[in-house]
């Protein structure tokens, strides 16, 4: 289907994929210095790849666009394309090399695009704590079991790492959770290092939560 789309339409599809929400024409202009004009957006709408219409909340009621389920499927299919669409400009060709590598990673890890690109949502500390406790219970084999933060963090959805760290530190301070380093440093993976939380000058990789 790529051959039927213009390069600006393809670029717009990937912007909508990464932001995973409605994007207005003024925001397109600010982010990537173009807008989806009438013919371009109507074709994407006709193909079932996006929804578009006048905003009911933004000043001036600009056009807003969002991927449909079919649009998400189109983006996933593009991750398997090995050659960039014509004309093959250098930046577009490089983009498709990047997308192909991302596609291989997603297939290897059995992930979907929606697992990677999720809309940013502001969560309260209480909501994050609830997600932490639910995720912990799913992973823990016994009460107060030690669970790797590298396994817990992916279960917290779109919660930001900074906010999660703040909640974890408060749970530790209040004695509701215990955070410790992995004693076998050689067993640590890159994921363990990335998920660690630093408290008292030490990286902690494991968590145990007291029953409420």
Q: Mean pLDDT score, rounded?
A: 87
| Major beta-sheet overview | 3 strands, antiparallel
Radius of gyration: 22 Å
Number of domains: 2
Q: Strand arrangement, largest sheet?
A: 1-3-2
Question: What portion of the residues fall into strands of 2 or more residues?
Answer: 5-15%
Estimated helix fraction: 40-55%
Q: Uncertain regions: pLDDT < 50 for 5+ in a row? A: none
CATH topology of the largest domain: Arc Repressor Mutant, subunit A
User: Which CATH top level class of the largest domain fits?
Assistant: Mainly Alpha
DSSP helix count?
10
CATH H-level superfamily title of the largest domain: Winged helix-like DNA-binding domain superfamily/Winged helix DNA-binding domain
CATH architecture of the largest domain: Orthogonal Bundle
Structural description of this entry:
The protein has 212 residues and is of the alpha+beta class. It has 2 domains: 2-116, Arc Repressor Mutant, subunit A (Orthogonal Bundle), CATH 1.10.10.10; 125-209. Helix content is 48%, strand content 13%. The protein has 10 helices and 8 strands. The protein has helices at 7-19, 25-32, 38-46, 69-78, 90-108, 113-116, 125-139, 149-152, 161-173, 190-195, and strands at 23-24, 50-54, 63-67, 147-148, 177-180, 197-199, 202-204, 206-209. The strands form 3 sheets. Strands 1-3-2 form a 3-stranded antiparallel beta sheet. A hairpin with a 2-residue loop joins strand 6 and strand 7 (202-204). Helix 7 crosses helix 9 (161-173). The longest helix has 19 residues, at 90-108. The model has no long low-confidence stretch (mean pLDDT 87).
């Amino acid at each position: 289907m790529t051959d039927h789309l213009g390069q600006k339409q393809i670029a717009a599809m990937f912007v909508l994929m990464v932001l995973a929400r409605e994007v207005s024409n003024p925001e397109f202009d600010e982010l990537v210095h173009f807008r989806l004009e009438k013919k371009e957006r109507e074709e994407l709408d006709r193909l079932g790849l996006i929804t578009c219409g006048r905003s009911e909340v933004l000043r001036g009621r600009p056009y807003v666009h969002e991927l449909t389920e079919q649009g998400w499927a189109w983006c996933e299919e593009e991750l398997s394309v090995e050659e960039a669409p014509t004309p093959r400009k250098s930046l577009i060709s490089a983009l498709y090399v990047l997308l192909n590598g991302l596609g291989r990673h997603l297939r290897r890890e059995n992930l979907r695009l929606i697992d990677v690109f999720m809309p940013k949502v502001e969560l309260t500390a209480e909501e994050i704590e609830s997600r932490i406790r639910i995720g912990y219970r799913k992973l823990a084999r016994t009460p107060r079991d030690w669970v790797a933060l590298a396994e817990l963090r992916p279960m917290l959805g779109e919660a930001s790492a900074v906010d999660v760290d703040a909640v974890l530190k408060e749970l530790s301070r209040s004695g509701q959770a215990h955070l410790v380093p992995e004693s076998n440093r050689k067993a640590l993976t890159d994921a363990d290092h990335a998920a660690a939380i630093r408290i008292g000058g030490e990286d902690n990789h494991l968590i145990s939560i007291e029953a409420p």
